[in-house]
Design brief:
Strand order of the largest sheet: 1-3-6-8-7
Largest sheet: 5 strands, mixed, barrel
Number of helices: 2
Structural class: alpha+beta
Oligomer: single chain
Order of helices and strands: EEEEEEHEEH
Strand content: over 45%
Shape: globular
Distance between the termini: 22 Å
Radius of gyration: 17 Å
Helix content: 10-25%
Amino acid sequence: MDAMVWMTGYVGGDVEFRTVKDEYTFASFRLACTPRQWRGGEWVDGETTWIVVSCSRGLAENVRSSVGKGDPVVVAGKLRTDRWTDGQGGSHERLVIEALSVGHDLSRGTSVFRRASRSAAAADSPAEVTEVTESAA
């Protein structure tokens, strides 16, 4: 069973884009979520939560063309945990949202939609993309 989540926040940096085996496209960015709380008669920022958002295929292309640092976005997708060890034997983990949908948060501004042309990447089967994703990691 997948843990489906949606989050709102701000893009924390440039979108990173890459192509694997000249076929499969991937994009990722960090999402910053900072709660605002009313304390002592004024608004204060809470602790910022950072999460990595990863996209593949056509969504990756569209995110690269549409999303920039500082943009308010809404992300929906599958919550995953990435685990790895570094060169010194230390183990690390981070939460990642495998995005199924990314869009501008229209409660914070306006946006203009442009339909993307269909590409060969959109025809890839999910099994093929999972295979390449796992081999690239």
